[in-house]
Amino acid sequence: MERTHADALRWMAAGTQLFLDAVTGLTEEEYDAASLLPGWSRRHLVAHVAANADAVGNLVRWAATGTETPMYASPEARAAGIARGETLSATELDAWVRGSAETLAAAMAALDESQWQQPVVTAQGRTVPATETPWMRAREVCVHAVDLGTGLGFGDLAPDFNAALCDDILHKRGLAVLPTEVAGEPLPEVTAWLAGRPYSLADAPALGPWL
Fold first, then answer.
1. Are strands 127-129 and 119-121 parallel, antiparallel or unpaired?
2. For residue range 121-150, what is the model confidence (pLDDT) as tens digits?
3. In the predicted model, is pLDDT for residue 211 greater than 70?
4. Which of 28, 67, 77, 139 has the fewest other C-beta atoms within 10 Å?
């Protein structure tokens, strides 16, 4: 499907709320539990989402000021943000993930039309207009809300988000259309399969990692 800037902002807001609702009230022991991402606890995952808001915020600041501000200072800095989750209490993690999300939303709301069109560079080295940043963030909060392993699935995400994500991943995987084995199957399951997450499609071919 063809996604719009307004769509991405809507999905980002909804996904952020879904993620924050999922971590609300988690105990220290629940934060220590494994997420659905191999080798990552929920602490790692929440720290990653919080640090991602700060990183996307760097791109928004770049668009607002014209001063080059990379998402992450280095790959090591990105890894350090994830590792920081192990050093924080549940209360501190909760404050970081909420505060960073609020700061990012406010920074985006302050951009004018010309600033939204400013080119920025993603962590993967792609030069894109700043209008791409809400979509980048929407993917993070929506998919990682599922990865928390608190009971959410791709069926809890907006159907039009799932459709846009399917198109996005197909493109990144170099696929023009869905394979016949999964074409016509339920959209949430197809999205999960494409994203390399647990799925229930019996005949789906094996895929490599997504991102």
1. antiparallel
2. 998 899 999 999 999 999 999 999 999 999
3. no
4. 67
